[in-house]
Amino acid sequence: MIHIRKKPAVLEVHLVRKLCVAAIAILVSSQAGADDDLMNAARRTFKPIPSVVPAVKDNPVTHEKVELGKMLFFDPRISASGIISCNTCHNLGTGGADAGPTSIGHGWQLGPRRAPTVYNAVFNVAQFWDGRAPDLKAQAKGPVQASVEMNATPEHVINTLNSMSDYVVMFKKAFPIEASPVTFDNFAKSIEAFEAVLITPAAPFDQYLEGDPNALNVQQKAGLKLFMETGCSSCHNGINVGGQDYFPFGAVERPSTSLLPTADKGRSAVTKVASDEYVFRAAPLRNVALRPPYFHSGQVWSLKQAVGVMAEVQLDAKLSDKEQNDIVAFLNSLTGQLPKIEYPILPTRTETTPLPSTGK
Amino acid sequence: MIHIRKKPAVLEVHLVRKLCVAAIAILVSSQAGADDDLMNAARRTFKPIPSVVPAVKDNPVTHEKVELGKMLFFDPRISASGIISCNTCHNLGTGGADAGPTSIGHGWQLGPRRAPTVYNAVFNVAQFWDGRAPDLKAQAKGPVQASVEMNATPEHVINTLNSMSDYVVMFKKAFPIEASPVTFDNFAKSIEAFEAVLITPAAPFDQYLEGDPNALNVQQKAGLKLFMETGCSSCHNGINVGGQDYFPFGAVERPSTSLLPTADKGRSAVTKVASDEYVFRAAPLRNVALRPPYFHSGQVWSLKQAVGVMAEVQLDAKLSDKEQNDIVAFLNSLTGQLPKIEYPILPTRTETTPLPSTGK
Q: Cellular location of this protein (chains A, B) (predicted)?
């Protein structure tokens, strides 16, 4: 019997095995299909950060401009007090932003909004939370002159730069066809050129978008799926996972006034259109995990909490704890490779350099 | 006649030539002797900056400590406000000091004295203008806690560091035999280790001290000679051309109160000895040309003017314009090669990191 029954048993086992293999193949194929669908959907919605420096409108990014712009970015003597540089509020060591909630400027005044990151800012549709500067060269002129930030004037900047021959030489090299290159415009263009190199490619999510299905783990993929299906990606999309368009903060429910102070009307101050009240540029989420606190008001210190707030006030969605964790895991996959920056040795002030002024 | 007279004439010419050559040889030899004397005198008075990192007492300088110390040096979250780092006042881009006259700290308060440079500070006999800290590890604890500077507490520092696992791991690597290495002492030791690498070798003056007579030009040698003969080097000597001992500011004549404010009694506040009133550590003059303004009060913006003041109030000497220029030329030869520092990417704050506090 044993021998007789053996063959059918073996056959059965073979049959079961075949069926199992087939079933697993169907399952795997189904999972693979779902994975492919997710990757395809992601590729339609987002774009990877390039590994080469992007072109900038009206401002070719040359080595000379980048080197000069780096010095200007780190030079506190651009400010009236002599202690605030671009890097003070856009600290490259802490995600391109400062400690927050909002920035401390000249005279220890608190600014009205959280400092946006300079990393990948070149990819945003426009600059500032309300998009009031069309590009980084326009943006760079703002904080320098804001009384609550660097409290300087274009004249102070130009006098400071002209007082140091090393700077004058660098401007001549960066703008070789101009007779008098030390201008406020060229100051801003140099900073824009430096900021154009502040891109952070090769995040796990970039590798995923480039076709590596293993660049994201299971939880990150679940988070990505949720991020798209819940509707986050309807505003946070494109190369910067945001930063491409303007939306009301509180689309379905008004956030608390600590998150959305009533005094700050957002983009309507720029467009003078009533419907733009409390409208802001969708925050670019590249490297978002590196720079709490969140929102323009900088009052939320946890990325998970920020995700929960956004789901509620923008999408009328109540995410479970697991769902929030999954989305946070996905957001962590947006942290790219930060460029290595050598701290610049700045030209030495001369007797014609404007003196620092700490008063208001 | 012409022919007859030719020979003696030729002989005469030869004789004159020989005499001239001999005379020039004597002059050259005399000049060479004077040059040798100057170099020998300089070598007895000063020492070159070494090109290797010096040993530090009770704190072996390891790669791990230096890397950690660099992060701590640049981390503004050490301060209560989250925006002031060691580098804010000891800016490595501007000679290791800030814009001056004195430093701006927490709440925009003005400190009482000019920030001393961190470059080559490891070679000073003690730290601060009054030498109240015996070494850099003791010094590093001061500004962190000073209400007019970073306004933090050891507890704030330790809580901040413990809240970020990357820091905890780095402390474990830097202090591998300690069970609980995240301490205020080790924080200070790490900063001291980083500051020990902030040395600036290979200045023209170092090359001169190493035996290259052409490393200084004629004016710089004249300035060096004056610097020693006028008496400057009786206080400003050794490896740091100063920083080795304490002397009254106004040894022969009291400087104006803008330069020597009466409220700041100098070292007597440390030693409680009346004769130490208005006594300060002789300023180390390495890289002095990189960091105006001068003196502890930071009211003199020109190195030449500073030289003139010192000659008058310390040495009762009235230097001519040329002599001042010569000494300034010599002081310019003290500018060495500054180390290249990669700007550190800092650990990301977590939900347990203390929040910044901008209030007083």
A: Periplasm
